[in-house]
Protein backbone atom coordinates (compact mmCIF):
# COMPACT_ATOMS: atom_id res chain seq x y z
CA UNK A 1 0.00 0.00 0.00
CA UNK A 2 1.58 3.27 -1.12
CA UNK A 3 0.27 4.98 2.01
CA UNK A 4 2.75 3.01 4.12
CA UNK A 5 6.36 3.25 2.99
CA UNK A 6 9.47 1.52 4.27
CA UNK A 7 13.10 2.39 3.74
CA UNK A 8 15.36 0.83 2.75
CA UNK A 9 13.68 -1.92 0.73
CA UNK A 10 16.76 -4.10 0.79
CA UNK A 11 19.80 -4.02 3.02
CA UNK A 12 22.85 -6.18 3.39
CA UNK A 13 24.98 -5.60 6.44
CA UNK A 14 27.58 -7.27 8.59
CA UNK A 15 27.40 -8.79 12.03
CA UNK A 16 27.74 -6.17 14.77
CA UNK A 17 26.58 -3.21 12.71
CA UNK A 18 23.79 -0.91 13.85
CA UNK A 19 20.87 -0.82 11.47
CA UNK A 20 17.77 1.35 11.36
CA UNK A 21 14.67 0.54 9.36
CA UNK A 22 12.19 3.33 8.83
CA UNK A 23 8.45 3.37 8.30
CA UNK A 24 6.26 6.31 7.33
CA UNK A 25 2.52 6.50 6.81
CA UNK A 26 0.16 9.05 5.36
CA UNK A 27 -3.02 7.30 6.49
CA UNK A 28 -3.36 9.27 9.72
CA UNK A 29 -3.48 6.07 11.74
CA UNK A 30 -2.63 6.12 15.41
CA UNK A 31 -1.27 2.60 15.71
CA UNK A 32 1.92 1.29 14.14
CA UNK A 33 3.56 -2.12 14.24
CA UNK A 34 6.76 -3.88 13.30
CA UNK A 35 6.68 -7.52 12.25
CA UNK A 36 9.30 -9.99 11.21
CA UNK A 37 8.59 -12.72 8.63
CA UNK A 38 10.66 -15.89 8.35
CA UNK A 39 9.88 -18.82 6.04
CA UNK A 40 7.58 -21.26 7.79
CA UNK A 41 7.13 -19.02 10.83
CA UNK A 42 4.60 -16.54 9.57
CA UNK A 43 4.55 -12.98 10.90
CA UNK A 44 5.77 -12.29 14.40
CA UNK A 45 5.21 -9.03 16.23
CA UNK A 46 8.36 -7.23 17.37
CA UNK A 47 7.07 -3.92 18.78
CA UNK A 48 3.94 -1.85 18.50
CA UNK A 49 2.88 1.67 19.37
CA UNK A 50 -0.56 3.08 20.00
CA UNK A 51 0.54 6.72 19.91
CA UNK A 52 3.68 8.84 20.05
CA UNK A 53 4.23 8.29 23.76
CA UNK A 54 3.40 4.61 23.79
CA UNK A 55 5.77 1.71 23.03
CA UNK A 56 4.98 -1.94 23.66
CA UNK A 57 7.02 -5.09 23.31
CA UNK A 58 5.72 -7.82 21.09
CA UNK A 59 6.49 -11.52 20.94
CA UNK A 60 10.14 -11.17 19.85
CA UNK A 61 11.50 -7.81 21.00
CA UNK A 62 14.94 -8.98 22.19
CA UNK A 63 17.73 -7.48 20.09
CA UNK A 64 15.48 -4.73 18.72
CA UNK A 65 14.44 -1.24 19.77
CA UNK A 66 11.97 1.23 18.31
CA UNK A 67 11.27 4.92 18.23
CA UNK A 68 7.97 6.64 17.46
CA UNK A 69 9.25 10.05 16.38
CA UNK A 70 5.85 11.31 15.27
CA UNK A 71 2.43 9.86 14.64
CA UNK A 72 3.46 9.15 11.06
CA UNK A 73 6.90 7.63 11.71
CA UNK A 74 8.00 4.47 13.47
CA UNK A 75 11.57 3.23 13.20
CA UNK A 76 13.07 -0.12 14.13
CA UNK A 77 16.70 -0.43 15.20
CA UNK A 78 19.01 -3.38 15.48
CA UNK A 79 21.75 -2.18 17.82
CA UNK A 80 24.19 -4.93 16.90
CA UNK A 81 22.93 -7.04 14.03
CA UNK A 82 23.41 -10.81 14.07
CA UNK A 83 22.87 -13.35 11.26
CA UNK A 84 19.67 -14.81 12.74
CA UNK A 85 18.07 -11.40 12.32
CA UNK A 86 18.15 -11.98 8.58
CA UNK A 87 14.48 -11.77 7.62
CA UNK A 88 11.77 -9.79 5.88
CA UNK A 89 10.53 -6.93 8.04
CA UNK A 90 7.10 -5.38 7.68
CA UNK A 91 5.68 -2.21 9.14
CA UNK A 92 1.91 -1.95 9.51
CA UNK A 93 -0.61 0.64 10.66
CA UNK A 94 -4.17 0.61 11.89
CA UNK A 95 -6.79 3.01 13.17
CA UNK A 96 -7.60 1.67 16.58
CA UNK A 97 -6.80 -1.80 17.79
CA UNK A 98 -9.74 -3.68 16.29
CA UNK A 99 -9.40 -2.54 12.72
CA UNK A 100 -7.59 -3.95 9.72
CA UNK A 101 -3.87 -3.43 9.43
CA UNK A 102 -2.24 -1.90 6.37
CA UNK A 103 1.19 -3.24 5.59
CA UNK A 104 4.14 -1.56 3.97
CA UNK A 105 6.06 -3.24 1.14
CA UNK A 106 8.66 -4.75 3.46
CA UNK A 107 12.40 -4.49 4.00
CA UNK A 108 14.55 -7.49 3.19
CA UNK A 109 17.48 -7.50 5.62
CA UNK A 110 20.48 -9.78 5.29
CA UNK A 111 23.07 -9.93 8.05
CA UNK A 112 26.32 -11.59 7.02
CA UNK B 1 0.89 -16.28 25.59
CA UNK B 2 -1.71 -16.57 22.92
CA UNK B 3 -1.02 -19.06 20.14
CA UNK B 4 -2.74 -19.30 16.78
CA UNK B 5 -2.30 -22.54 14.88
CA UNK B 6 -3.06 -22.79 11.19
CA UNK B 7 -3.26 -25.87 8.98
CA UNK B 8 -2.27 -27.07 6.51
CA UNK B 9 1.08 -25.37 5.94
CA UNK B 10 0.97 -26.14 2.21
CA UNK B 11 -1.90 -27.10 -0.06
CA UNK B 12 -1.53 -28.14 -3.68
CA UNK B 13 -4.71 -28.13 -5.73
CA UNK B 14 -5.66 -28.42 -9.35
CA UNK B 15 -7.22 -25.30 -10.78
CA UNK B 16 -10.95 -25.51 -10.24
CA UNK B 17 -10.72 -27.56 -7.04
CA UNK B 18 -11.79 -26.20 -3.67
CA UNK B 19 -9.41 -25.15 -0.89
CA UNK B 20 -9.82 -24.78 2.86
CA UNK B 21 -7.48 -23.50 5.56
CA UNK B 22 -8.20 -23.82 9.27
CA UNK B 23 -7.17 -21.67 12.19
CA UNK B 24 -7.30 -22.49 15.93
CA UNK B 25 -6.51 -20.24 18.86
CA UNK B 26 -5.39 -21.29 22.32
CA UNK B 27 -7.55 -18.51 23.80
CA UNK B 28 -10.94 -16.97 23.07
CA UNK B 29 -10.58 -14.20 20.54
CA UNK B 30 -12.21 -10.79 20.32
CA UNK B 31 -11.99 -10.84 16.53
CA UNK B 32 -10.21 -12.76 13.83
CA UNK B 33 -8.82 -11.30 10.65
CA UNK B 34 -7.70 -12.94 7.42
CA UNK B 35 -4.93 -11.69 5.16
CA UNK B 36 -3.55 -12.77 1.79
CA UNK B 37 0.06 -12.39 0.75
CA UNK B 38 0.93 -12.86 -2.90
CA UNK B 39 4.42 -14.19 -3.70
CA UNK B 40 6.89 -11.33 -3.25
CA UNK B 41 4.21 -9.07 -1.82
CA UNK B 42 2.95 -7.87 1.51
CA UNK B 43 -0.07 -9.08 3.51
CA UNK B 44 -3.34 -7.56 2.41
CA UNK B 45 -6.45 -7.56 4.57
CA UNK B 46 -9.32 -9.72 3.38
CA UNK B 47 -11.93 -9.69 6.12
CA UNK B 48 -12.64 -9.46 9.84
CA UNK B 49 -15.03 -11.68 11.78
CA UNK B 50 -16.38 -10.47 15.10
CA UNK B 51 -19.46 -12.41 16.14
CA UNK B 52 -19.67 -15.97 17.41
CA UNK B 53 -20.73 -18.28 14.55
CA UNK B 54 -20.36 -15.53 11.96
CA UNK B 55 -20.16 -16.47 8.28
CA UNK B 56 -19.13 -14.00 5.61
CA UNK B 57 -18.73 -14.42 1.87
CA UNK B 58 -16.66 -12.59 -0.70
CA UNK B 59 -17.41 -14.02 -4.14
CA UNK B 60 -15.77 -17.49 -4.05
CA UNK B 61 -14.36 -17.04 -0.52
CA UNK B 62 -16.32 -18.09 2.57
CA UNK B 63 -15.09 -17.21 6.05
CA UNK B 64 -16.41 -18.73 9.27
CA UNK B 65 -15.85 -17.90 12.94
CA UNK B 66 -16.53 -20.67 15.43
CA UNK B 67 -19.21 -20.56 18.09
CA UNK B 68 -16.61 -20.45 20.85
CA UNK B 69 -14.62 -17.76 19.00
CA UNK B 70 -11.51 -19.94 19.09
CA UNK B 71 -11.44 -21.26 15.54
CA UNK B 72 -12.01 -20.04 12.03
CA UNK B 73 -11.81 -21.24 8.46
CA UNK B 74 -11.42 -19.87 4.96
CA UNK B 75 -12.88 -21.83 2.07
CA UNK B 76 -12.27 -21.01 -1.59
CA UNK B 77 -14.58 -22.55 -4.15
CA UNK B 78 -13.27 -23.41 -7.61
CA UNK B 79 -9.77 -22.03 -7.22
CA UNK B 80 -8.23 -19.87 -9.91
CA UNK B 81 -4.58 -19.08 -10.60
CA UNK B 82 -5.14 -15.63 -9.12
CA UNK B 83 -5.78 -17.28 -5.74
CA UNK B 84 -2.14 -18.31 -5.44
CA UNK B 85 -0.48 -16.98 -2.30
CA UNK B 86 -0.27 -17.44 1.44
CA UNK B 87 -3.37 -17.02 3.56
CA UNK B 88 -2.94 -15.94 7.15
CA UNK B 89 -5.39 -15.81 9.99
CA UNK B 90 -4.68 -13.36 12.78
CA UNK B 91 -6.36 -13.24 16.16
CA UNK B 92 -7.13 -10.29 18.36
CA UNK B 93 -7.89 -10.57 22.04
CA UNK B 94 -8.21 -8.17 24.95
CA UNK B 95 -9.91 -5.71 22.66
CA UNK B 96 -6.81 -5.46 20.53
CA UNK B 97 -4.56 -4.37 23.39
CA UNK B 98 -1.84 -6.88 22.48
CA UNK B 99 -1.96 -6.48 18.73
CA UNK B 100 -2.52 -9.28 16.25
CA UNK B 101 -1.20 -12.81 16.66
CA UNK B 102 -0.72 -14.38 13.25
CA UNK B 103 -0.94 -18.02 12.32
CA UNK B 104 1.97 -19.38 10.29
CA UNK B 105 -0.09 -19.28 7.12
CA UNK B 106 -1.20 -21.73 4.47
CA UNK B 107 0.60 -21.61 1.14
CA UNK B 108 -1.83 -22.28 -1.69
CA UNK B 109 -0.20 -23.69 -4.80
CA UNK B 110 -2.40 -24.14 -7.88
CA UNK B 111 -1.55 -26.45 -10.73
CA UNK B 112 -3.16 -25.53 -14.03
Describe the structure in brief:
The complex is a heterodimer of chains A (112) and B (112). Chain A has strands spanning 4-7, 10-13, 19-25, 31-38, 42-51, 54-57, 65-70, 73-78, 87-94, 102-103, 107-111.
Describe it.
The complex is a heterodimer of chains A (112) and B (112). With 112 residues, chain A is mainly beta. Chain A has strands spanning 4-7, 10-13, 19-25, 31-38, 42-51, 54-57, 65-70, 73-78, 87-94, 102-103, 107-111. Chain A is globular, with a radius of gyration of 13 Å. Chain B has 112 residues and is an all-beta fold. In chain B, strand 9 (85-92) and strand 10 form a beta hairpin. At the A-B interface, strand 5 and strand 10 of A face strand 5, strand 9 and strand 10 of B.
Task: Chart the SSEs and their pairings.
The complex is a heterodimer of chains A (112) and B (112).
Chain A: E1 4-7, E2 10-13, E3 19-25, E4 31-38, E5 42-51, E6 54-57, E7 65-70, E8 73-78, E9 87-94, E10 102-103, E11 107-111
Parallel strand pairs in A: 2-11
Antiparallel strand pairs in A: 1-3, 3-8, 4-5, 4-9, 5-6, 7-8, 9-10, 9-11
Chain B: E1 4-7, E2 10-14, E3 19-25, E4 31-37, E5 44-49, E6 55-58, E7 61-65, E8 71-76, E9 85-92, E10 101-102, E11 106-111
Parallel strand pairs in B: 2-11
Antiparallel strand pairs in B: 1-3, 3-8, 4-5, 4-9, 6-7, 7-8, 9-10, 9-11
